[in-house]
## 1
Amino acid sequence: MTAFKVLITGASGFIGSHLMDRFLEDNLRVRCLVRSTSSLRFIPTERVELVEGSLSDIDSLRRAADGVDLIVHAAGLTMACREEDYFAVNRTGTSNLLRAAAESSPDLKGFVYLSSLAAGGPSRDGRPLTEDVRPLPVSCYGRSKLAGEEEAKKFSDVFPMVVLRLGVVYGPREKEILEMIRQIRRGWGFHPGRKDIHLSMVYVTDILQAVALALDNARPGWRLYYVSDGEVHQSGRIMSMIAEMVGKKPVRFRLPLGIVRGVFLSIARFRPEARCAFYLDKISEMRHKYWLCDINKARQELGFQPRVSLRQGLQATISWYRRQGWLK
């Protein structure tokens, strides 16, 4: 695979930038689709080829896809004020990229679409979801990612297609868990909802392993895999672990989701942009106790083996934040 050229969408983002690092280490030729407003902070521009464009600009997508051997579609909208905004990027943008790839690189050797556990929905009976369980997303984001998967499936007779539904991804450069860590360092342990949430999580380097295995094992057709560290993590235990690592004993308190929603709506009345910043759509997901997936299929068919435990991953993440001056 070392002689191949790979296109990464979302290369300026959290997962995309780590993918770029991995592919450069593997001596692949890397092309990155970036928006005109994208930060290039984590992109070594002297080592990669940049194509400026967007998922709504089909001409830029044709240029980006022209002549590549592999595509990893990591771009996506995770925060929006309206459902149609999610679908414009996560469904229509994915469709645009697939059409451009089919036109510009008909001999594509592999296409990996990074989806989310949110597309599968919560585990209503507490058992980890498997790939054959009917997806029932409960949020706008989840529905839009599932719609992106359905677009990808339409092209499975054109080039090899792999969809990876990721658990909660964390690691250096990620911002959501950073806010939790900052809150705990200030001495507060805020928990939305009355009960702990049970989560499937995965450190970002294990995602890179899964993507590399998916590309190495590319074959005709459409395949779907859940990806996580294979463990069940309780939200309260995650907070305790972080508190231990930052040397704090935060005051913990829980708020019913109805109150949380009311607070967010009150803030949004005076600051419309906060409606997005506080992930109001995520409250729909917080109402469910179990967000779990089974990774046996990825283990058996791809040879995927999670290598980073939650404790190791959190330690590495916090250390990186400190080195970057993100924790003050």
Note: The domain at 5-174+199-233+291-309 is CATH 3.40.50.720 (Rossmann fold).
## 2
Amino acid sequence: MQHDPKILIHTADSRGGGDHGWLKTRHSFSFAHWFDPDRMGFGALRVLNDDLIMPESGFGTHGHENMEIITVVNTGEITHRDSMGSEGRILAGEVQVMSAGSGVLHSEYNEGPEVLTLFQIWITPNVRNVTPRYDERTFSGETVLGETLLVAPMDSGMDALLIHQDAYISRIILDAEHPLRYTLKDPTHGVYLFVVDGSIETYGHHLSARDALGIELVPEIPLTAKEHASVLVIEVPMISD
């Protein structure tokens, strides 16, 4: 039986966040001191933070457990250090994943001269207390049209960064001459579309930069744009394990 799509809209100005001087942040879902009982996540997606971090500042050493943490660097560079012994610089266009699992300490710091901007995404895992792990990768730039798979499940065999959840994160670049249809990996999943820049149309809704749309009960999502647009597509189970 075919059902009508279930759609929610989160406009850019409806997000929470704060200005801490060294950090300017916007939260798509309840986080830190911002709480909205209607914005506790979207299925297994728990956090989507849009951060701007000034030079010579960042997040000091702190701990996490049982969370899949994905960082997408947009401009600048971030220096990562953790209790597993991983250390490195992640540059614009690169993505890192960290499975916190049974517990890990880490710091994320902007040691460079430029302002750092990034998206931080948290996804609840489908298995708890795994051995923590870390990985990073460079992906093609923001001018490459089409769909790039960034993150996929551990057992998928796909060429992407791997996490402990049946979830997928893709970056889609499109323009007026190149519409695109995103096909769900699993039609029981939901998809959270987050417009990075530009504007798009889908299912009769117009989304501008930093607007988001959550959608369920569809096998695919048509995307059109009048000009260049960049979109993060986060496909997740709607009930996390």
Note: The chain has no helices and 22 strands.
## 3
Amino acid sequence: MSRVQDSGLFLVVFLATAFSFFAPTKAYSEKSQVTLSAIANEQTHAAAVLILREAYRGIGHTITFELLPARRALSEANSGATDGDVARISGTEKKFPNLIPVPTPIIMFQAGAFTKTVTKNIAHWSDLKGLTVGIIRGIRYSKIGTEGMDRVVAKDMTHLFRLLDRNRVQVAITVVRAGEIEAAENFPNSGIHLLGKPFYTAPLYHFVHRKNAQLVPLLDAEIKKMSENGLLQELYNRSFDGK
């Protein structure tokens, strides 16, 4: 073989090898299976699960969920052990920098204080000062709102209300609809009730791990469509109403 032919063959082999090395094996957008972190025993995340199952179906994906304690759910999503977390407040990405929020919120929630004995009005976070406050570990809005207060941290919703029922805390902070369901189902004769009106309202956003960044615009478009046609609210209500 001539030197020219030999050089030509080398170039073809080199280019073929380089292309196979640098070309992606499969775009993530083509992946059909996604696993998301979700908080176990928490009704708001149960609603988010229902919503996201439909949103991912709309972009051609199926999803499974890892039900975990709230703080661990975030850690698993941030580490890449799962593909994201179902729903968190804005700013979560500052503490967990590997997570990217989908811009359109999936849930707007209202939080309030549940109690057995307290009668004072709670209209702001500052009104909780002087009380022993119960929150759930890993739920960031309640942790931020009660910073510096006398608080007790529960592992999940049922544990939180058990602390309240046993007078270990004077008030328990949680999403109102979730708290009402917990009180009705697991503490029906306890006297636990919402104290006044909800005093905190915020949107929840779906977060994906940065390795899945290409899913963000697809999911955002789908969630916007679900919001505009009323499906988002319908699924949220269905989750809480049990229909």
Note: Confidence is low (pLDDT under 50) at residues 1-30.
## 4
Amino acid sequence: MLSHDTLRRAFVIVLVGIALGIGFNLASPRKVPWKAVKKQVASLEEAAPPTAGVPEAEAATPEALPPGHDPGDAYADITESEFPREVSLEKAKELYDRGGLLVLDVREETEYAMGHIKGAAHAPHDEKVGDVEWLDSTAARAAPYLVYCDGGDCELSLNLGFALCESGHRRVLILKEGYAAWEEAGYPTSTGDLP
């Protein structure tokens, strides 16, 4: 049977551990929330385009573009947001066809090798969400990201999308239907370990 002294020491160790955990969380730039929050995102298609209500002749002028967007930016119509936004399969294909979109597949390595969107980089969720250096480096890239997983109930792409936004990236899109819908639609795919 444990002595009173042993129980007291164990209790103190637990309290010190809790205090250190809380202190670290408060000091950390990437705080862990105190309670779970269901991540919800708006749809890109539901957001008003930056030139909505502007006559077509004026829409092409640099003044009509959102602040901070280069007039030569093929994705100037994707406004910046502090949260990722869902995009439909059709809209994702339209954006993909413009070229220069950074596509990230967050599924497991075996799933990626069996088939992925052509040109997609493999960015496994478990490795990238916690990789602060990689996340911080993404904010310097001007091109928007399209992140996907299996679609449906899969939240891996959503989690990575939020992590990208927290690191400073402001044009992150989530393919809500996922890879299966992309493949079923007959859009460009590739197999193997390379994009």
Note: Residues 56-190 form a domain with the Oxidized Rhodanese; domain 1 fold (CATH 3.40.250.10).
